[in-house]
């Protein structure tokens, strides 16, 4: 969709119109649906023209949806019911801490993923709120609805600055998201979850069943399988803490074990809060790898 | 045999060990050093979990070229310090023994300077401790196993040539005893004597000097016969060409005679002068202007005080014989009261040994059974002379019959003078530094004392026991017995003084005066020390001069040691290059 079609300035993200149109065919799959508006085909049976099923007439039902042929065949008045259009509150919590900016690839992939998910949600009629966070919640965008807000969202995301913080905390952003959708909804966290010591508290701010929480843990390939070698001084991108190490193959193998243990702890904490975790390598192409993966994982539908 | 490149190499040297320890310090510094590259990671969280494992792994020295270079530098420096020429280790390095010929001929020309230079070079080239043995008239260990080069130099400076004769065999034996079987023995000499074989196998002989022409006063003595004193001197040429020289005779400082002498190749002149009884000191001086001026003169004392003889014990025959002895004062003394203060020249003990041997000579007449000659034997055995001993030479005693008083066994330190049958009845020798004459027969029996020869025999025995100071000059290097601890000595190399040892070594040509006692008992003996000698004044070199001793580099084959410092420099340059350029490229690879 070009800037002329949308009536907005061209999105600064590397999304072309065709890609955006492909995104519009997707929806976020969430268990938590609220409201009877939106483009989401809800599961709720409501009197509707698109016939799905019948139910006995209840006072107040729209008489235009009475199925008169069925009435002729039966001695009871039935109305046609279909999936009523529904919407969800979708909060995107985007990690903007320094750890997400160590590698440009990781930083850009996080932005792209958040932008894509937000675009999908907006196009689906969901009410979207984007909460960037570092040590605290940063400039919140939304809540907004309607696909027409998409370009503005993309511009906003593109203009988000990094925040160098010594202590990235998810809980404040989670509370901010909770306050934006008091009825609950879907929360998608896009983060590397390195400094997620408060993950348990953050998920507590978005409790199930009111909230359907999806943690998209974005890690760069070097974080998953480090290739560092030799005597190095490793410095934490956020805390500045330094560690003098001699890294060799056995130590790298030990790192992978430690990493997997940490990932397991994150999953455990998430499972305790009925949240879901999906590990997304930052070097995966968004459309060819990330989105199909999310579809396979039933995060996206369409 | 060790490789020449490794000869003298010893990592046991302290400096070498210290530099090897430096390698440990280098490793520790690398272990402690900050890494060369800083890497920012998203989170240290997973790495922090690995710290215990990482710390264990960090204990290994990270392999790096810089570490290898630094270790190489430390090892190279240790090798430099381990080589010969660096600080020696007494325990690990071989011992060098230098035997230095200190005879008079070594004083000729520049022989001594060359010899000292050779000795210095040998001592410096040796990696270990040094010993120095001086081979003069007697061998002496001047320095024993000392690695301090300053002390080696001082010891070398304390040795002076000049003695008549060189006890080279004794010096080599002393060197072997000091150095042991593994020592490097160097003998530095002018070849005055043929090197004795087999004393120290493997000893290296280094010759100095070249053959030189020389004139010398090789003998000078005075003899008083029937009141007439005659001065005798022998002057010899040790040259292959004809030479001329002026000779002067000074008596009591005044020139008494001057004459020009002509010498054919190897010719000698015997000269005789008459001097009066008032003359005290004569000097024979040869104006030779040759390589050895010290052997061109001799000082001869012409008069000495009469011999003072104390007679311990009683014997009419001895007393009568001594009464007629010229220049002899006889004092009687008891067996418990004889003098021991050095104021007598000779002590005659009749019929018994002396409980304490006094200073001076001793004549034992009819020694008791405990003596070597003390057992009774046959009566009436004819005495015959043995050899040409000065005491008995020319005496007619064939008809004398004596009662031997000894068992006829010759002491190990003595030589026979008279025999009676197969029995030794008189001997003479030096025991415990004292001249001793033993006359092992009873002079009061069988009328031996009336024989004309007996007084002469006794007088000769007394003179011989006294050392016969008026007989002439003695060679430089002679040990002269001193008359007790209260002796006073004045000479060309020392000021008058007392508190001396038992012996005085006459090291310098000239007149020595040795005194003892005080007042009327005071006695002063004059002794002339002479440098000239038929052997020492002959400056013919009997082997060619040696080549200089090996330098330290030659011991290692002159090969790689000089390159060690260059290797260190090259390593440092490589490190500098790495830091400047190559290292950056290698950093990016990691």
Give a brief outline of the structure:
The complex is a heterodimer of chains A (302) and B (590). With 302 residues, chain A is an alpha/beta fold.
Task: Name the structural class of chain A.
Answer: alpha/beta
- Strand portion of chain A: 25-35%
The poorly predicted ranges of chain B are: 1-7, 85-90, 369-379, 547-560, 582-590
Q: Which of globular, elongated, flat, extended, rod-shaped describes the shape of chain B?
A: elongated
Strands ordered across the widest β-sheet of chain B: 15-14-16-17-22-21-20-18-19
Cα gyration radius of chain B (Å): 37 Å
Q: Approximately how much beta-strand content do the residues of chain B carry?
A: 25-35%
Indicate the radius of gyration of chain A in whole angstroms: 23 Å
Work out the number of β strands of chain B. 29
CA-CA gap between termini of chain A? 20 Å
Number of continuous helical runs of chain B? 11
Q: Tell me about the largest β-sheet of chain A.
A: 6 strands, mixed
Quaternary status: heterodimer
Helical content of chain A stands at 25-40%
Helicity level of chain B: 10-25%
Structural class of chain B: alpha/beta
Secondary-structure element string of chain A: HHEEEHEEHEEHHEHEHEEHEHE
Q: Tell me the number of strands of chain A.
A: 13
**Average pLDDT of chain A, to the nearest integer?**
80
- Largest interface by Cβ-Cβ < 8 Å: A-B, 38 and 26 residues
Main β-sheet description of chain B: 9 strands, mixed
